[in-house]
TrEMBL record:
Main location: membrane
InterPro entries from the UniProt entry: MAPEG-like_dom_sf, Membr-assoc_MAPEG
Lineage of the species this protein comes from: Bacteria, Pseudomonadati, Pseudomonadota, Alphaproteobacteria, Rhodospirillales
Keyword terms of this UniProt record: Membrane, Transmembrane, Transmembrane helix
Name of the protein: MAPEG family protein
One Pfam family here: MAPEG
Localization in the cell: Membrane
Organism this protein belongs to: Aestuariispira insulae
Amino acid sequence: MTITALYASLFALIFFALSVRVITVRHATRIGVGDGGDNLLKRRMRAQANCAEYGPLILILMGLSEHLTVSAWALHGLGIAFLAGRALHGFNIARDREVIRLRIFAMGLTFTALLGFSLLNLIQLARVWI
């Protein structure tokens, strides 16, 4: 599963960057647990958490797609949509003033990957079972 390994590794770098951004605000505000009512910390925490919520499921679906021999083009196309969506969403909502159109676009990319991998897996399974 070399293609999934590539996207999982790149996703981990995005997650790492979002985590460092949380730690930076925690250090500056001296808030060790929770958000302490700090709006910037709250936004950065949600950006990191949202990334953690969607990423593993999409990577599992991607790995299954690769195992089910979905084409490399489809894997890369949806993988790029996944990474772009997570990066744009994470860094946009972690700002003091997010750009709502960018957030909508980023979630569209994420949902494209989520639904795309789900449908590709179902199609591949139907081919095997029928």
